[in-house]
Amino acid sequence: MTDESAITPTAENLYPPLQRSGDAVYDAAGTMLPHWNYVMESLAGMPGAVLNDRQAKARRLLRDDGATYNIYTDNFRDKLNDSRTWGLDLIPNVISSDDWAAIESGLVERAELLNLLLRDIYGPRQLIRTGVIPPEVIYANRGFLRACQGLRMPGEHDLIIHAADMARGPDGNMMVLADRTQSPSGAGYALENRITLARALPSIYREAPIKRLAGFLQAQHRCLASLANGQREQPNIVLLSPGPGSPGYFEHAWLANYMNFSLVEGDDLVVRDGQVAMRTLGVLKQVDVILRQINDPWCDPLELRPDSLLGVPGLLQAARCGNVHIANALGPGILEHPGLSAFLPSLCQALLGEKLLLPCRETLWCGDARSLEQVKSEIDGWILRDISKPGRLYHADQMGLEALRDLRISMERHPYLFTAQRPVEASVTPGFNPQTGTLERQSATLRFFSLVEPDDLAKPVNERNYRVMPGGLAWVGEPGAPLMKSRLVKDIWVMAPVPQPHISLLRQALGPIVVTRDGKDLPCRVAESLF
C-alpha cells in the first residue's frame, strides 16, 4: 500500500524551512508563519509544469501590455542601451496584518516628519539655528535648491506623495534604506504587477484575503483634484514625463491612462502671465495640477539647470504665484540625502515629540569628527557615498591600494561630503525559478507609498493625515540596489481578515466611441508626430 503522505505535495516539501532565523516564511523553530499558509498551500497543490505555464503566461501578458523599462549609461536621450520587459515573479511577498499595522504607522509618521522637515529647510531653518542639523548637511548637498526658498504650495503639505525603500532584517524587523521624495516611481508598476498576477493566478488571487490597491489610486486622484484650489469644477491635471526615452515611461503612460490625466512633456507646456498652459491644436489650455515624474533640477531651465531640455521655462515662478500646484513641490530632493538618516531620530523628537518608529539602516555622517574617526578605523565595514557624485558607492574592501588612498585623502579634505552606511543583511523570501521549476530563496527590496489624505489637505499637519498603499513593489537583488538594475520584480500582498472587494479605475466604454478632431486635448507635439 502506497503511503499517500509521501506523494502528496506539501508546502514544506515545496519550500523547506531553514531551521534558523532569516526566512520570512518560517520562524526560528522552522514553523510556517500563519500569513504564508494560504499562498504556500495553494502553490503546493500546483504541479511544477503548471507553475511554469503560469509564469510563461505572466511573461506574455507583460509583453503584450508593453510593460518595459529602459536601461541607460549616461544621457538617456542619446544612449538607449536596452529596453526590456521586466520579469515578474509568481510568488508575492506576503505581509501579515499585524506587521502591516506597524509598517503603516511608521510610514505615516515618516511622511509627516519629512514634510515638516522640508518646510523648515525652505522656511525658517530653525533646525539649523538650534543645532539639530549641521548646516553642511543641507548647504553642501546638490539637492538643496536656493531658488525654492520660501516656495509654498496651498495648504499644509508640500510633500504630497512619499515612497520609502525598505528591507526586512534577519530578526524580522523592517528598516528603511532610502526615501524617495522628488518624483516617487513604482506605483504604476505595482498596479501592473497586481493585475498580471490576478490573470496568471486567477483562482489563488480571487480567494486570497489581501488588501486591494485601487483604493489608494482613487485617493491619489481625489487628492490631486483637491489641489486645484477649487477654481474650476473640472480641473486640468497633467502628468509631466521626460518622454519615451525615460526609464519609467511605461509607468507614466499607464498611470496617465488609468487616472485619466493628460500625459505631457516639457515642450507641451508653456508659461504665460504666471500661468501654466498646455499647447493644443485648438487653444492654450490652463493646467491646474502637475504630477511630475522629473527630478527637481531638470524642471525649470530658467532658474534651475539651464541645460535641461525636459522642464518648463518659468515653472518655478508660476508655482510661486500660486497658479499651479506641483506634486511634489519643487525642492524635496534634499530629503533624499543619505546623511539625513543619521539625524532622523533626533529630528523626530524635535518636530513630532516622539520616537522614530521605523529605524534607518546604520548611518554615519563623516562631517562629525567622531563619526569620521570611526569610519576610518573600520573602513572595510562600511559602504561610502560621496554626495557630490550621486549614485557612486565605495566599497573599501573591493578597492585597490591607490584608489583607497585617494578616497582617504578626499575624506580628510571634505569629510562633510561623505556618508557611511552599514551593509544590510536581509531576510529571504521564496521565488519561483522557471529553469528548475522549484522555489528558491531570494533577497528583495520593498518600496511602499504614502499619500496625503484627500479630505485632510486643509487640516493641521499634526493630525496624522497620510494614508499608505496596502501593498507596493519589490525587486530581487542586494538590499538597497536600484530598481532598474534588477531583472525580477515581485508583488506585495498585505493580508486582510477576509477577502476584499475588487475595485478598478480602468475606464470602460459606456457607449459608442466618437472620434473627434477638435484638438482640445491633443498636444501639438502629438499632432506634429502624426505628420
List key phrases describing it.
single chain, 531 residues, four-stranded parallel sheet, eight-stranded mixed sheet, globular, alpha+beta, 23 strands, disordered N terminus
Walkthrough of the structure:
The radius of gyration is 24 Å and the shape is globular. By secondary structure, the chain is an alpha+beta fold. Strands 3, 4, 5, 6, 20, 21, 22 and 23 form an eight-stranded mixed β-sheet that branches. Mean pLDDT is 86; it is low at 1-6, 72-81 and 508-518. 29% of the residues lie in helices and 20% in strands. β7 (237-240), α11 (249-258) and β8 form a beta-alpha-beta unit. The protein has 16 helices and 23 strands.
Secondary structure: elements and pairs:
Blueprint: H1 4-7, H2 11-14, H3 37-44, H4 48-65, E1 68-72, E2 80-85, E3 87-88, E4 93-95, H5 97-121, H6 126-129, H7 135-139, E5 161-168, E6 174-180, H8 187-200, H9 202-207, H10 214-226, E7 237-240, H11 249-258, E8 262-264, E9 269-272, E10 275-279, E11 284-286, E12 289-292, H12 315-320, E13 325-327, H13 344-352, E14 363-365, H14 369-377, E15 383-386, E16 393-395, H15 401-413, E17 418-421, E18 429-433, E19 438-442, E20 444-452, E21 466-468, E22 473-476, E23 488-494, H16 524-530
Parallel strand pairs: 3-23, 4-23, 7-8, 7-12, 12-13
Antiparallel strand pairs: 1-2, 5-6, 5-20, 9-10, 10-11, 14-17, 15-16, 15-17, 18-19, 20-21, 20-22, 22-23
Helix pairs in contact: 4-8, 5-13, 8-11
Q: Summarize the biggest pleated sheet.
A: 8 strands, mixed
- Helical proportion, percent range: 25-40%
Q: What value does the Rg take, in angstroms?
A: 24 Å
What structural class should be given to the helix and strand makeup?
A: alpha+beta
Uncertain segments are 1-6, 72-81, 508-518
Cα end-to-end separation: 76 Å
What percent strand? 15-25%
How would the global form be characterised?
Answer: globular
How many helices? The count is 16
**Average pLDDT over all residues:** 86
Number of strands: 23
